[in-house]
Amino acid sequence: MPPQTPYTTDLAGREPIAALRETTSRIGAVAGGWAAADFERSYAPGKWSARQLLIHLAQTELALGTRARMALTTPNYSAQSFNQDQWIARDATLTGRAALDAFLALAAMNLAMFDALTRADRETTLSHPEYGALSVDWILHQMAGHQIHHLKQLEAISAR
Fold first, then answer.
1. For 116, left (φ over 0), alpha (ψ -120 to 50), or beta?
2. pLDDT tens per residue, range 3-49
3. What is the mean pLDDT of the chain?
4. pLDDT, tens only, 91-111
5. pLDDT of residue 39
6. What angle do CA 5, 70, 68 make, to 5 degrees?
7. Of the candidates 140, 65, 145, 132, which has an alpha carbon nearest to the alpha carbon of residue 105?
8. How confident is the model at residue 1 (pLDDT cuts 50, 70, 90)?
């Protein structure tokens, strides 16, 4: 049975590596032709702009990819939590185009790593202060569902 994450519903039983590959490509297609002003639009009042969503996605690729790498190379690895709003504030001057480019590059790097994992690698464990005992496979499923969740928001922005 696949691991249950906060984004299991978004993943909807799909194979996570295939989902990551498809979602990354779709995000690039949705936002790739946007003008600077398009990145400042939101899908609903009071919600993050497309630029902020892309910064968040890039930061998530950075943070969760690092967690997976640390778990795979550090015995008894314990991850740290991070505050997504504080992280976004640190990169507030990043342009939408730069955020998209960063996301696409980090996602490609993570996909290459995830694609090369063995079953034993995916079963490698780590601990997390909020979620307890996790595995690299849990991270993979979390990232795939998370990308799908935010792709829907970016598609809504594109349709406006």
1. alpha
2. 899 999 999 999 999 999 999 999 999 999 999 999 999 999 999 99
3. 96
4. 999 999 999 999 999 999 999
5. 98
6. 30
7. 65
8. confident
- CA separation for the pair 138, 125 (Å, rounded): 9
- Does the pTM of the predicted model rise above 0.70? yes
Q: How many CA atoms lie within 13 A of 143 on its CB side?
A: 32
Distance CA 80, CA 128 (A): 7
User: DSSP string spanning the chain?
Assistant: -PPP-TTHHHHTT--HHHHHHHHHHHHHHHHTT--GGGGG-BSSTTSPBHHHHHHHHHHHHHHHHHHHHHHHHSTT-B-----HHHHHHHTTT--HHHHHHHHHHHHHHHHHHHHT--HHHHT-EEEETTTEEEEHHHHHHHHHHHHHHHHHHHHHHHH-
For residue 148, give the amino acid letter.
I
pLDDT exceeds cutoff 90 at 160:
no
Rounded CA separation 45/1 (Å): 38
| Short-list 84, 53, 83, 67, CA closest to 148 | 53
Residue type, 157: I
Any idea which residue has 């569902």 for tokens? 145
